[in-house]
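Here is the promised in-class demo. Please do not try to memorize the tokens; focus on the logic of going from shape to residues.
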């Protein structure tokens, strides 16, 4: 297990010092060591890497309680060894404290010197689960939420502008829940009943999703190695993301633009809803991300998607009034998907909001000119901050009087009125926008429908 912890340590070093994304750093390190690892080893490495990245703020506060050395003065290797040890002691029940301490000390000997291992040993022996529980006694609301949910205070303050303290605390808590594995049936190759039988035959547990084409799987690992995935019977997609594609309401034989399409989850769902008839132009800024859209389309048996490198902020006369529908799933801070990408919390800053909203506004203004009269734009983000969502829309409508809000009836897409989506969307009747916050099952998304007059 010492070797396994060392691999996790190297991934954490990449994330911190090389500013690598957690999912990319983890994938790379596992591929490099694949021949040496069993499935349970990969699971433990993932647990440590995502766990430490998710809970870094809270863990660092515990370190500060016992360390006389400031965090910035501690070697990044030794600091991450401490974080790994504390994560195991405080947040994992399956690892004995003695094993966490001993393995951490062994790593400190290898990546530091004798005083480093003594330092790690001295701190970890003092750590207890109570160190985390004590944070719940903090009286100041923002400080308490920050330390109990490992959330930067600037994010909490932003959320408090439009939500009450209990709602913000719940959003932050749910940002740390391990994401469910959710799949979308590919109706071009199978149907829901057949896929359900195929999953049962392979001993895979699942339940119905909130949306009609979705299943939530239980206790499954390495799903991309499953034959049904490789053959394109389903794809992996959060239901919030699926709902965005559904409210586009794509029809067969339409010409649709997905201006920020990679990796292609929403693009391919629209193509499936169109029964693979019509045309979708799928744009992205980078070649390697365009390739992801093409790979997904090929696996799913879709041939109506034309993926290409395009900058959605740059106006092109050739596309004016060319499209029946346009999906703008614009770049954003990504604060709605922290349970999948926890490193976003540490990479983003309050100042980034102004910069990203300029890009969002430019994409919306530019691409709106590509829409046919009576067509619809769906503007969406995986963000939960109004500056990136409602305020961008309001500013656009003030300047573009030939657009108005479109109509969304969420009841058209869900399995029943008890859908968890209604917990976030108080208006169960017709509306023009939906804000989903992180909850026990879903990520956070915003979506708004705009109609060209």
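The designed amino acids, position by position:
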């Amino acid at each position: 297990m010492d070797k396994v912890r060392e691999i996790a340590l190297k991934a954490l070093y990449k994330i911190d010092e090389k500013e690598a994304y957690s999912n990319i750093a983890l994938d790379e390190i596992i591929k490099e060591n694949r021949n040496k690892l069993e499935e349970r080893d990969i699971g433990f490495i993932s647990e440590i890497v995502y766990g430490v990245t998710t809970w870094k703020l809270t863990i660092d506060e515990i370190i500060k309680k016992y360390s006389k050395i400031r965090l910035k003065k501690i070697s990044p290797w030794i600091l991450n060894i401490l974080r790994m040890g504390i994560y195991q002691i405080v947040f994992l029940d399956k690892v004995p404290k003695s094993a966490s301490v001993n393995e951490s000390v062994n790593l400190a000997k290898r990546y530091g010197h004798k005083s480093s291992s003594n330092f790690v040993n001295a701190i970890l022996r003092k750590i207890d689960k109570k160190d985390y529980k004590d944070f719940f006694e903090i009286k100041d609301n923002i400080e308490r939420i920050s330390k109990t949910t490992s959330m930067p205070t600037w994010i909490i303050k932003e959320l408090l502008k439009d939500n009450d303290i209990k709602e913000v605390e719940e959003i932050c808590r749910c940002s740390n829940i391990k994401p469910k594995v959710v799949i979308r049936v590919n109706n071009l190759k199978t149907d829901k009943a057949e896929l359900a039988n195929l999953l049962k035959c392979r001993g895979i547990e699942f339940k119905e999703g909130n949306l009609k084409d979705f299943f939530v799987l239980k206790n499954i690992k390495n799903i991309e190695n499953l034959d049904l995935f490789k053959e394109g019977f389903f794809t992996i997609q959060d239901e919030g993301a699926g709902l965005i594609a559904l409210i586009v309401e794509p029809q067969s034989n339409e010409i649709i633009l997905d201006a920020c399409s990679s990796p292609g989850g929403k693009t391919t769902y629209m193509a499936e809803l169109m029964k693979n008839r019509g045309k979708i132009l799928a744009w992205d800024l980078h070649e390697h991300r365009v390739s992801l859209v093409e790979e997904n389309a090929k696996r799913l048996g879709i041939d109506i998607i034309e993926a290409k490198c395009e900058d959605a902020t740059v106006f092109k006369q050739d596309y004016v009034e060319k499209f029946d529908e346009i999906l703008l799933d614009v770049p954003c801070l990504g604060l709605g998907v922290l349970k999948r990408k926890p490193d976003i919390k540490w990479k983003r800053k309050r100042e980034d909001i102004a910069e990203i909203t300029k890009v969002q506004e430019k994409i919306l203004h530019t691409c709106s000119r590509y829409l046919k009269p009576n067509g619809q734009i769906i503007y969406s983000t995986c963000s939960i901050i109004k500056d990136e969502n409602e305020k961008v829309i309001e500013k656009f409508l003030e300047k573009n009087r030939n657009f108005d809000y479109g109509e969304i009836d969420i009841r058209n897409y869900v399995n029943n009125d008890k859908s968890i989506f209604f917990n976030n969307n108080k208006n169960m009747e017709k509306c023009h926008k939906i804000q989903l916050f992180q909850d026990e099952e879903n990520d956070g998304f915003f979506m708004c429908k705009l109609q060209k007059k």
